[in-house]
From TrEMBL:
Membrane-traversing stretches: 21-43, 79-101, 113-133, 162-187, 208-233, 272-292
Residue ranges of domain ABC transmembrane type-1 in the record: 76-291
GO CC annotation terms, alphabetical: plasma membrane
Keyword hit for GTP-binding: no
Membrane topology: Multi-pass membrane protein
Source lineage: Bacteria, Pseudomonadati, Pseudomonadota, Alphaproteobacteria, Rhodobacterales
GO biological process: transmembrane transport
Descriptive protein name: ABC transporter permease subunit
Family of the protein in this entry: Belongs to the binding-protein-dependent transport system permease family.
Compartments, as annotated in UniProt: Cell membrane
Keywords: Cell membrane, Membrane, Transmembrane, Transmembrane helix, Transport
Superkingdom of origin: Bacteria
Amino acid sequence: MAKTSASGRPSRLFRNLNAKIAAIPMILTACVVFVGFSAWTILHSFTKSRLLPKLDFVGTAQYERLWASDKWLISIQNLVLFGICMLVFSFVIGFLLACLLDQKIRFEGMFRTILLYPFALSFVVTGVIWQWILNPDFGVQSIIRGMGWESFTFDPLNNGRIVMFGVVIAALWQGTGFVMVLLLAGLRGIDDEIWKASRVDGIPAWKTYLLVIVPMLRPVFVTTLVIVTAGIVKVYDLVVAQTGGGPGISSEVPAKYVYDQMFLNQNLGQGFAASTMMLLTVAIIIIPWAYLEFGGRKRG
């Protein structure tokens, strides 16, 4: 039986006791798998492990070599470019689509399914599909040239300067529907009285969205931002399927660099160092979000 305080209520420690007991296996698994293996990875990033991990410490040599690698620096630049484009365009397009569907248009369910369907595909399938679509021999370029515009050129996957924009197009096609659904769920939680009041006051719909609705959706925007950003940091399958990191190394990303070092070059120490930098990036994203969400809620 749960212990009670002087007021007759269960003490905080024993509230929802059954739920806390049920969560113990999950907590232990998370601690062992995530915390334990993360610590193991960080530890071995300071070693010169090659084919097999070994505790032969070399200090920060792996990190110095990492940041001196042109391939790693290019992968970071590509990730920043990919991340900025994804965050800006996925949120803008996703929010506009969510606002459109929030008008309760006809065949809303059909449109929502069509827009969300690409998210059900794997990144490998998406990469292959868009590799075909952007192929100059039978993709967009070939179709438009067949319509009479012989000088039209659109071949991003074979141009190192713009190849990442081809990857962004494929990622937006797959991920924008997911952003739309999250924001639409937030919009459906807005009280109808707000819309009635804005119509009575003669406030245009766009101004209501911008000045009233968007601030109310801050928690939804923050949560969506964290989910999308975590996916951006981990992007791998799409790049491998669509470009293979090419042409040359112009579309390399950090996750592919880690894979290449650990499994192709058999350099575990270098792969662990790159993994640690990716883990640090995710921590920089997650920790402020957790503080704002849960710390702010407790203060409230």
